[in-house]
Amino acid sequence: MRYLPILIIGLLFGCGQKNNTTTRYHEDGRAKPVVAIAPLLDTTSFDVPWSISEEITSTLTRQISQTNQIFVSSRDDFAIAENPFGNDFSWMKQEFEPHEFVVFLELVEHEIIPVGKEKTTAFPQEVSKNLKMGIRIRVMDLRGATPKIVLQEMIRDSYYIPKTLIPTDYNVVVWGSESYQKSAMGIAHAHISQEIASRVSDYILLAKSR
C-alpha cells in the first residue's frame, strides 16, 4: 500500500507531460511558437500585500495561452542576472533554451493620483483618481545564431476611479479573490495585461511565419 501514492503521482505527472506535448502543436501538426515569459521586473515602490510581478506575469501567461496559437511557459526560477533591456544579448540563448522566443517585462510606473483640479482638495478620499501604469516590453527571437529584438515598446494605461466609488482596502481585497477581480485595480491590471498579450502574440506569430 505504501507504493500507491507514488504510483498515483507518477500517473498524474505522466498525464501532465502528455497534455503539454499535445498543446505544443496545432491540430494539423504544425508547431506553435515556444515562448518563455520571464517574471516581470517591478521597479516601482507601489505597496500591496501580494506580488504585482507574480500577478501580471501569471495573468499575461494565461491570456496568451488562451489564444491557443502559442505554447507558453512561465517559471519563477528563471535566473536573470543580466539586464534584459541592455545591449548584451549573449546570455539569452543559454538561459532560455530550448524556447524560440522570450518576453521581458518591466513595471516602471504604478501610482494612484488625483484627477485634475481635484488635487487641491483637503479630503483625498473624496476625489476622483487615475491608476496610471507603464510597462516596458521586449520580445526576443532566439532561433538564430544571435538573439534579435522582435518587439520593444512601452505600454501605458490609465484607469479612472470615480470619487463616487467606495474606496477599496487592498489589504482585505487581495489578488486571487473574486472581489479583487471586480475592483478597480483588478480590472486595470487585467486590461493592461490583455493589451500586452495582444501585442506580444501578434509580433511573435508574425516572426514565426517568416
Strand element count? 6
Helix percentage: 25-40%
Distance from first to last alpha carbon: 55 Å
Q: Helical segment tally?
A: 5
Following the backbone from N to C, one meets helices and strands in this order, namely: HEEHEHEEEHH
User: How many individual domains?
Assistant: 1
Outline: elongated
Give the uncertain stretches in residue-range form.
1-22
Structural class: alpha/beta
Return the CATH topology: Rossmann fold
Average pLDDT, all residues? 85
Q: Over all CA atoms, what is the radius of gyration?
A: 20 Å
Tell me the name of the CATH class: Alpha Beta
Commentary on this structure:
The chain has 5 helices and 6 strands; from the N terminus they run H-E-E-H-E-H-E-E-E-H-H. The N terminus is likely disordered. With 210 residues, the chain is α/β, with parallel strands linked by helices. It has one domain: 3-Layer(aba) Sandwich (Rossmann fold), CATH 3.40.50.10610. The radius of gyration is 20 Å and the shape is elongated. Helix content is 33%, strand content 24%. The longest helix is centred in the last third of the chain and has 26 residues. Strand 5 and strand 6 form a beta hairpin.
Question: What layout of secondary structure does this protein have?
Answer:
Layout: H1 4-23, E1 34-37, E2 41-42, H2 52-65, E3 71-73, H3 92-96, E4 101-114, E5 129-141, E6 148-161, H4 178-181, H5 184-209
Parallel strand pairs: 1-3, 1-4, 2-4
Antiparallel strand pairs: 4-5, 5-6
Descriptive terms for the model:
six-stranded mixed sheet, 6 strands, elongated, Rossmann fold, 5 helices, alpha/beta, 210 residues
